[in-house]
Amino acid sequence: MQVSIKSYAKVNIFLKIAGKREDYHEIVSRFVRVKSLYDTISFIPKNETNEFNLIGDFGCKLEDNSIYKAFLQLRKYCPKIDAFFRVYSIKVEKNIPEFAGLGGGSSNAAAFLILANKHFNLYYKKDKLARIAAKIGADVPFFVYEYDSANVTGIGEVVHEFKEEPLDIEVVTPKDIKCHTGKIFTCFRDDFYNEISKEKSKELLSMSSKDILNKLTIEEANDLYLPAITQYPQLKEYAKTNWFFSGSGSSFFKVK
Ligand SMILES: C[C@@](CO)(OP(=O)(O)O)[C@H](O)COP(=O)(O)OP(=O)(O)OC[C@H]1O[C@@H](n2ccc(N)nc2=O)[C@H](O)[C@@H]1O
Ligand SMILES: Nc1ncnc2c1ncn2[C@@H]1O[C@H](COP(=O)(O)OP(=O)(O)O)[C@@H](O)[C@H]1O
């Protein structure tokens, strides 16, 4: 029986804004998994608390943890998991930095759903898991599908695999800069708001990640880069030729 799973980081090869939806923004983006950077999530048969027990190096309270949110969502469909997680703990070996634009929290939530789906023989199809995932966070559906590369639109709920050669991605995350996604979207909305055209979206969504990175500058590839350096000017020290910016930051990446 499978009791542990790798939870990979992602980068956004490009990230453009297509519109607004209430307090959120609709995105047009290419998400690519970083195969060299992952957390490991395990179900371990030891829990002395008799409550849901999450072991790992997290910067947030249990109630805010994406894995706990995933547990609460899944429990609505499958109440028996409650008893199981009073006897088993969830242990996370954390390697993906937080507030880094690498989707660590979202990836952990999706990995939990995938592992639980197997462990409890639920046989939920990916589309059903993705609908549950969308209730946890914008980036969680992407990770549920386990695609190496995908076009992601809507608020993150529309995920289509993009078949391309595997990319070897190098990531650099500034240690001392924690980018708050909400703050950066607010800055974008107030000072940089611009919507990508339908034609440009179509073009980017059809291009290989390598071609996109060869064609675009860091500012053109990611609409959140200028808001991010406005909010966190120290980020500029990390900007180097041929490096790109992931999500709402703070990580930079390049294809090796
Ligand atoms: C920007 C992206 C791109 O991959 O990634 P990260 O940099 O966080 O990894 C994501 O879409 C981020 O998704 P996620 O990190 O799940 O965001 P959430 O916690 O749901 O949202 C935090 C806040 O950011 C704003 N937000 C988020 C997503 C979105 N599409 N539009 C928004 O305006 C909202 O104000 C929201 O309250
Ligand atoms: N399992 C988790 N792993 C990492 N961060 C988490 C987790 N659950 C909740 N968070 C919180 O989510 C927020 C964003 O972290 P994360 O998803 O890692 O970064 P980002 O949105 O920049 O990709 C932080 O407030 C972090 O504390």
UniProtKB/TrEMBL annotation:
Positions bound to ATP: P97, E98, F99, A100, G101, L102, G103, G104, G105, S106, S107
Catalytic residue positions: K10, D139
Molecular functions (GO terms): 4-(cytidine 5'-diphospho)-2-C-methyl-D-erythritol kinase activity; ATP binding
InterPro entries, alphabetized: GHMP_kinase_N_dom (IPR006204), IspE (IPR004424), Ribosomal_Su5_D2-typ_SF (IPR020568), Ribsml_uS5_D2-typ_fold_subgr (IPR014721)
Keyword Phosphoprotein: no
Keywords of the record: ATP-binding, Isoprene biosynthesis, Kinase, Nucleotide-binding, Transferase
Record-listed E.C. numbers: 2.7.1.148
Pathway entry: Isoprenoid biosynthesis; isopentenyl diphosphate biosynthesis via DXP pathway; isopentenyl diphosphate from 1-deoxy-D-xylulose 5-phosphate: step 3/6
Segments forming domain GHMP kinase N-terminal: 65-145
Keyword Nucleotide-binding: yes
First-level EC class: transferase
GO biological process: isopentenyl diphosphate biosynthetic process, methylerythritol 4-phosphate pathway; terpenoid biosynthetic process
Catalytic activity from the UniProt record: 4-CDP-2-C-methyl-D-erythritol + ATP = 4-CDP-2-C-methyl-D-erythritol 2-phosphate + ADP + H(+)
Domain of life: Bacteria
Pfam families referenced in this protein's UniProt entry, alphabetically: GHMP_kinases_N (PF00288)
Role, per record: Catalyzes the phosphorylation of the position 2 hydroxy group of 4-diphosphocytidyl-2C-methyl-D-erythritol.
Family affiliation: Belongs to the GHMP kinase family. IspE subfamily.
PANTHER family: 4-DIPHOSPHOCYTIDYL-2-C-METHYL-D-ERYTHRITOL KINASE, CHLOROPLASTIC (PTHR43527:SF2)
Entry protein name: 4-diphosphocytidyl-2-C-methyl-D-erythritol kinase
Organism of derivation: Malaciobacter halophilus
Lineage: Bacteria, Pseudomonadati, Campylobacterota, Epsilonproteobacteria, Campylobacterales
